[in-house]
Amino acid sequence: MAEPFQLRVVVRGYELDTQGHLNQAVYLQYCEHARWESLRAAGITQDRLISTGIGPAVLENTMRFRQELRGGDEVDVTCKWIWGEGKIFHVEQEIRRSDGVLAAELSSVAGLIDLTRRKLIENPAEHFHKLADRPEFMGF
Asked: Which of 78, 110, 113, 120 is an S-S bond match for 87, by CB 3.0 to 4.6 Å?
């Protein structure tokens, strides 16, 4: 897939902080929601993934705030999966207002964990690819 997965979200009033800005923790929730929606678009529901005895594990998040968001703003949250070697992968995400202004960027390092052994599995891309009905939504 040439373009990253994208999801539109409207900033809700109850997500704002006392200054009327989107609460900083909610930016991360928007990105988490977009990751799961990307997986779901690929055919991988939470139940389907967990039924394999494997679950996601976020190891690191780096959020960069660029522009404030306010109640009623419509934003597009992207999700780009970056596959490599070994036990980890990267996810790059952007939150942009509908007028194109970049509000935030998130870079994540993640893996898949064996829920019984509590250890990261080798080659998470292979595991995801086997489960995906539409792997192009995950950059395969």
From this structure: 120
User: pLDDT per residue over 94-123, tens digit each?
Assistant: 999 999 999 999 999 999 999 999 999 999
Catalytic residue (one of 17, 73, 76, 99): 17
Question: Domain limits of the chain?
Answer: 5-132
17 is catalytic: yes
How high does pLDDT run on average in the chain? 96
Burial class (CB in 10 A: 0-12, 13-18, 19+), 18: exposed
Q: Which of 55, 61, 8 is nearest to 30 (CA)?
A: 8
Are 96 and 124 in contact, with CB atoms under 8 Å apart? no
Q: What percent of the chain has pLDDT over 90?
A: 96
